[in-house]
Amino acid sequence: MRVLYVEDNPLDADLVRITLKKCDGEFELEWANGVDEGLEKLHSQTPCPYDLVLSDMHLVDGSGLTVLSEIRKAGIPVAVVMVTGQGDEDTAIASLKTGATDYIVKRQNYLKELPDTLRNAAKQYKESEIVQHEAIHVLYGEHNLTDIDLTLRFMKTHAPQIDLEIVSTADQMLEHLSNKTRLHDYDAILIDYHLPGPIVIEQINNLRAQSVETPIIVITGLGSEEAAVEVLKLSKTDYVVKTSGYLMRLPVILENAHHLVMLQKEQEALRKSEERFRLLAENAVDVIFRIKLSTPVKIEYISPAVERVTGYTQDELYSDPLILVKNSLNTSDPKAFTRWAENMESPMINLPFMRKDGRKIWFELRCTIIKDSQGQPQYMEGIGRDITQRIQSDQQLREQMERINALHQIDKAITSSFDLRVTYQVLLDQLRQVLHVDAAAVLQFEPDLIQYQYLTGLGFKTIETTLRTAFRHSPLPSEAVATKKTTQLNINSSVTFSPSLTDILNNEKFVKYIATPMVIKGQIKGVLEIYHKSELNPTREWISFLEALAQQAAIALDNSQNFLELQKSQSVLLQAYDDTLMGWANFLDLRDKETEGHTVRVLERTMRAAQRLGVREEDMEHLRRGVLLHDIGKVGVPDHILNKPGSLTDEEWIIMKKHPEYAYQMLAPIGFLKQALDVPYCHHEKWDGTGYPRNLKGKEIPFTARIFTVFDVFDAITSERIYNKARSKEEAIAYIRDNAGIIFDPDIVDVCIDVIREK
Q: Taking the model in full, what pTM does it have?
């Protein structure tokens, strides 16, 4: 990296040269003794021979900001790092706003940080385009000739994109802005607090009365802060205090005002494009719509695709817009629909919808709420897409992910708190979310008294004291306690209990009861109860998860009595995790018929090779999980691409190659799987850097991913695929050797081939 160092202190220049020489030839430093020499070197050669300019802020013949300004004005494509002393950080930060790439403070040991600062600045500059400042036209009201001169000179040197037009009185300013053709010439208005004429607040009010909406910035002196606060209360106004260095802040404030104006112009252009949008919408596959939310609710536009997706014609929906509301939100109340739209937390949601033929589908809704001048919702605009097929194919996987995340959350609650109520609140909250039940409770069994103590519950309308009394001698959990198995009971009027319990069941309208015992060390610790207000036919997997939660509840109860016992029971959770991971792997194999059995085949070889190559024992389990989940991202790939009976198109390959990123997005939020991400995220990277998704090269690729890639490719080319005939083992081994140093890590190929040859 060629670096030009602009510095008037030869000692500092030598220290930097010595520091950079220690970087094994990475940096080539050229010294310029001051502003003039630095600019001469920059302008004397075309194209610019330097990758980066390092400039001291304070130089004998000028300022480092001058160097920076000249570089940016001339459009010289080079990164710039400013060097400043302690206490001058504000100036350095302001330089970033003027176009510097980074800065470094000349403090103790700053030379140790310098190489990394230069590397990062060069990388940042290459990865991003230099911001090209557009001209900003400012009407500047100021009567002090000295301030005018200082401001004009500063802007010319450090912010040449800002064009100032000067007026010296409030009347002149109002006269300029009264001309409607000239009003639009200004991106911002800059007013000195003491500009001759009415007080500044009155001046601003006068301008607003003349429909001047241009942003206004007031320059005030020390001691006028209260007036400045009053300025802020006015619409589209800001202020800057005339303190030391205020001119450095002024360009940033004016640029922000300019950006506000540009945003308003873009919004106007957006409105003008509405007609073009309508033409595009008529031929769109997705449903495009605009709905008026205020009473009466009205569909202002809906695209023809709606008939194919919902079964309803456009005319049917125009005449009765509440069909969409009723069939998705189960309400015909337009006010309820408006409240739902107003409180919608995300612009993208999935909604169920009942088609005209009675078939349930799922909509992916991407929409924006447009509000009126009073801030009330006025319109909903957006796009609806039928995602039924995707929802159905992903449903099982989502449920598994929800359950394992719930187990993890409950596990954290158990290990971080001895307060049973806190732990059980987390457990019951996760239970209700994942199993979708109305209410749940935890009872502690007291065998000596043959009764139950109500510990906590969620979803009940009945007050806790009443629940505590009624559940003490409840017969409902008796069978679960006696058999130590999960039991179910349909509650109806023919079944009678104690008056207090019967009242609760009737008032809450419960019709289904499920109980599972909380057993630990063969002893009944309590009962986990579920109450539901409608028919419920749980699956075997549903019951297994409930029993896992009951086991955790028992552990939490035992934890409060004996903390050591909790640690011994952790293995139950780990097994639950691993069983779920194996379930994911099996699900993926079932979904992708081409690769069925692939995960199991590569797992054993990968683990054996990793052990021989020195992977740490504590990392082996993370590797195993990563192998099981290496293709988890393919659930985000549509079936018609994943199972296509032939070669993929370029567009389809783009989608297919996203599956490592999908894997990262799915697994990264799950804490215990973070260390298993290397294989799912990086197993398609290649040693020469031509892989995907991040083009990692060589040892940038995680070691475990490099090991797995060998066996993943081996299994792929020795398996029969629609697009690829199976090769023999020896042909596959030859392929691996030929691609050592291209696809594969050449240092591990021999060990991996030895493993392949073993039976």
A: 0.32
